Amino acid sequence: MFSLSAVELSRGVLDCGGGPASFTAEVSACNYRAVAIDPIYHYTSQEIRARFDATADSMLAQVRATPADWVWSYHRNPEALLANRRAALDGFLADYDPGLREGRYVEAKLPALPFDSASFGLAVCSHLLFLYSDLLSLDFHIESLRELCRVAGEVRIFPLLTLSGKQSPHLAAVRSALQAKGWESEVAAVDYELQRGGNQMLRVFPDRRH
Ligand SMILES: C[S@@+](CC[C@H](N)C(=O)[O-])C[C@H]1O[C@@H](n2cnc3c(N)ncnc32)[C@H](O)[C@@H]1O
Fold first, then answer.
1. Of 71, 93, 102, 105, which has the fewest CB atoms closer than 10 Å, so is most exposed?
2. Cα–Cα distance between 116 and 85 in angstroms, integer?
3. 210 falls in which pLDDT band (50, 70, 90)?
4. Which atom of ligand 1 is nearest the CA belonging to 1?
5. Enclosing H/E stretch for 183
6. pLDDT in tens, 83-115
7. Are residues 130 and 198 in contact, defined by beta-carbon separation less than 8 angstroms?
8. Residue nearest to atom 23 of ligand 1 (CA)
9. What is the pLDDT of residues 159-205, one digit of tens each?
10. Residues in CB range of 89: below 8 A, 6 or more apart
């Protein structure tokens, strides 16, 4: 999703809206500093697993009902998608309790983050901003991007599509707002594609002022 290199990870990474995914567990297992924030980190591992189990069937049914909307390359088919998601959940949960104690998982939510300025080399945010454009306003997106730019030297957001598979209506206005702050951004292609046409991320460079 983010075309990450080891050098980029070595600068410290924040996963914003990390959810029940194994990104932070896997990055910290490679001995890089990784922190995830999400409001669901209020809940216990049992509660998070129960929530996943309660929604898995409907997620699978939605995907099966819209076969033309998906690209089966990384995930070979809907069943493999669910199996991969479950493996990510398991990887996350195995790290969750020690990670809470060690400050790797932090209950927090955009648009305000509990970190000092420039705490991370990179912040990533997947399947939250832009994807939920119908629920999250343009102002929320702009405030969230400003906050991510405050805490990290670079920000990457994936995907740029909404849930209905159209480019987010907020993308252009968000980029203009960032440009008005003097922050460069670019749309870059990535290898990962699940939503058809969803193989792009936004990169924002708060450190690179015009
Ligand atoms: C669809 S999940 C994506 C999880 C993970 N990033 C991934 O790609 O698999 C969206 C996540 O965003 C979290 N979330 C919702 N509102 C948020 C907010 N205001 N700030 C941070 N995370 C939020 C949800 O709790 C959920 O875990």
1. 102
2. 32
3. very low
4. 8
5. strand 183-189
6. 999 999 999 999 999 999 999 999 999 999 999
7. no
8. 17
9. 999 999 999 999 999 999 999 999 999 999 999 999 999 999 999 99
10. 20, 21, 22, 48, 49, 52
Give 198's Cβ-side CA count (13 Å radius).
26
Residue 184 structure tokens: 């460069």
Cα–Cα distance, 144 to 146 (Å, whole number): 5
In sequence order, the 6+-apart residues with CB closer than 8 A to the CB of 35 are 13, 14, 15, 24, 103, 104, 105, 106, 120
Query: Of all atoms in ligand 1, which is nearest to the CA of residue 40?
Result: 25
Task: Fill in the amino acid letter for 207.
Answer: D
Closest C-alpha among 146, 77, 159 to residue 113: 146
> DSSP assignment, residue 155?
E
pLDDT of residue 67: 87
Q: Calculate the CA 9 to chain-centre distance.
A: 15
